[in-house]
Amino acid sequence: MLRSVSLFLCVIVCLVQGCKQAVDAEKDNSTALSLYTEPFRPQYHFTPPEKWMNDPNGLVYHQGIYHLFYQYYPDDIVWGPMHWGHATSVDMLHWENKPIALYPDENGLIFSGSAVIDHKNTSGLGTADTVPLVAIFTYHDMDKEKAGGTDYQTQGIAYSLDNGESFEVYEGNPVLLNTEFKDFRDPKVFWDEDSRKWVMALVAGDHLRLYSSDNLIDWDYMSRFGSGQGAHGGVWECPDLFELAVAGTDETKWVLLISINPGAPNGGSGTQYFIGDFDGTTFTSDQKEARWLDWGTDNYAGVTYNEVPDGERIFIGWMSNWTYARDTPTEVWRSAMTLPRTLSLAKINDSYTLLNYPLSGISDLIKEDINLDLDIAPNSYEAIVMENGNQSSIHFTCPLAKFSLSLTNDSGEELVIELDSEEELLVLDRSKSGLVDFQEMFANIQQMPLDNLPEGDLEFDVFLDASSVEVFVNKGQYVMTAQIFPTMPFSDLKIRNEGVESIKINRLKVNSVSGIWE
Ligand code: FRU
C-alpha cells in the first residue's frame, strides 16, 4: 500500500514538474523570441541578451571556439558590480550566449582582463590530459576604495578545464598586489616565445607596466612606459601589446594599444596606439604624439585575441563612450561590440600605420543589392533607394574630392558623412540622425584629419546596423565608429557633389547584411 501511494505521489509530482518545465520552456522561448528584435537592437554586432555590458575581456581561441567574455552587470542596464559575461563563436560573427563566467568574490568585483591557454601547464592548474584556460583579471575592492586607500585594485586568476564552460577561482588570489596606485588594472597576458615567459601588460594611472612570470601566479616587475608620451587626457586603461609584420617587408614591429578616458579627439573615451619595439623586458617607442586607432566616439577598451590559429591579430572594441554610455536609449540591454577587425601594419608615406578593418568572414553576411559606377556633376546629387538601410554596407572608391553621403528616412532623420578635400577631413554628423538629446555631447560633429593619404583613389566601406555606423577609409587606415539611434531605417542615400568638378564614384555597392541571430 505504502509503495503504491508513493508511486502515485511520484506520478503527480512528475506531472506537475513536467508541466512546470513546459511552462518554463515556453516562457524562455517567448523571452528568447522577443530578444534581439527590440528597437535599436543591432542585428550583426554582438550585444548581450539583456542588461549592461562594457569592455570585451578574455578574448581567446581554444579548440575551435572563440571566446568573448565581457564586463557585465546582470541586474541593471547601467554599470554596477562587475562580472564577466560570456559568449562563444566559431567565426567571431555568430555568437552563442553562455552563462556568466566570473562573479564578484571576497577579493572584489571582476574588472577587465585577458585569457590564455596554458599549453605547458606552467601554472599547474591543468591535469594530465587537460590544458587550462586561465583568465587573468583585476579585482576591484569597493570597501577598500571607500576606505580611501590606494590598494584596492589587484590582479586575480581563475581557470577552466572545460574550455570556458565553468571556472574555478584560484584559491591563492590575488596574485599581484598593489599598494601604490589607485588605478592598477586591465592585465593583458601573452606567452612570449623569445623570452619563454608570460608577459603581463598592465596600466597604472598614466603609464604601462610590464611584469613577467614563469607560472601565471608569481609575477615580477620588468619595466614601465608612457608617462609623457601620447595622450594623457584621462587615465590609461585596457592595454594590449603584440607584434605585427609590416606589410610588404620582412620587418616586424610591436604595437601597444592604450585606451584613455577622457581625452579622445572627438570627446570622451578613445583608443590610441604606439608603434615600437619590445625586447622581452621593455617596450620602447620614440613616438611622442598620440595616434588613434579610431577617430569616432564609440570604440573603446578594445583588445585583441590570443591564440588565433593562423596568427591573425583580431580586435574587438566596446562600441560606446563613458561620456554617455549610461544614457543611450535602449531598455532591455545596453551597448554593443564593434565588428571584429583584423589589425595590420603598413608603412604609408614612410610612417608606420596601424590599420583595422572588418574580418574577411563578414563577406559571408553580405548580399549585393546594387553595383554601379557614377559620375556626379558639380552641385548635383545621385539618389539611391536603400532596401535595408539599418542593416547594410556601402562600398566605393573615389578621388579625394568634396562630397557627402546623406542617409535619410521618412521621419526626416539624417546621418551625414562628408569628405572635405580642401581641409583634408572626414566629417561625421549624427546631430540629426535620430534620438540624440539624451545627453549633451552626443550630437557633436565628429572630425577625422586625413593627413597621410597615399597617392590615388580612396576606398570607402560603411557598415550600418540598427544603432551604429562604422566608416573605414583605405581598408582601415582611417576609421570612425559611432552609435546612432534612428527611429526608422534609413531608406534613401544621396551622394552630393559639393565641389566644382565632376566626381567619379566607382564600383558603388550598396549591400544588405544578414542578421547573426536568425
Ligand atoms: C574601461 C574600464 C576598465 C575597467 C572596467 C570596469 O572601460 O574602466 O579600466 O577594468 O572598465 O568595468
CATH homolog superfamily of the largest domain:
Glycosyl hydrolase domain, family 43
User: Hey, roughly how much beta strand do the residues contain?
Assistant: over 45%
Question: Biggest β-sheet: count, sense, barrel?
Answer: 6 strands, antiparallel
Q: What is the tally of beta strands?
A: 34
Mean pLDDT: 94
Write the CATH architecture name of the largest domain: 5 Propeller
Overview of this structure, please?
This protein is mainly beta. The chain folds into two domains: about 50-360, Glycosyl hydrolase domain, family 43 (Tachylectin-2, Chain A, 5 Propeller); about 360-515, Jelly Rolls, CATH 2.60.120.560. It contains two helices and 34 strands. The strands form seven sheets. Strands 23-34-25-30-31-32 form a six-stranded antiparallel beta sheet, with no helix packed on it. Strands 24-33-26-27-28-29 form a six-stranded antiparallel beta sheet, with no helix packed on it. Strands 4-3-2-1-20 form a five-stranded mixed beta sheet, with no helix packed on it. Residues about 1-30 have low confidence and may be disordered. The structure holds beta-D-fructofuranose (FRU). Beta-D-fructofuranose (FRU) binds near residues 54, 112 and 238.
